[in-house]
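help with this record:
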Amino acid sequence: MSNLPEISTNFDEFIKEGVVVVDFWAPWCGPCKMLGPIFDEVASKLPTAKFGKVNVDDAHELARSYQVRSIPNVCIFKNGQLVDRIVGLCDEHELASTIQKYL
């Protein structure tokens, strides 16, 4: 289980400053379960970014507003604006290198 915060209730506040990485996921999604430890590992290695999770089953409207149609769906925000995303399972290197472009 991830130690990263569930941010659907304070989403706008959470993403408004700096580089923020959000994992849109669901507990029934196999690839999401596989991404979980990778996401946690990258979070521990990139302390200048903030990381959070959104369970799409509990936050349908939020997922829809960011056009999350497939999961896992990792969205990268900079100062409140969506700047990039990775759809589907990725490895640690791909995730970290994508985030580092915005740090």
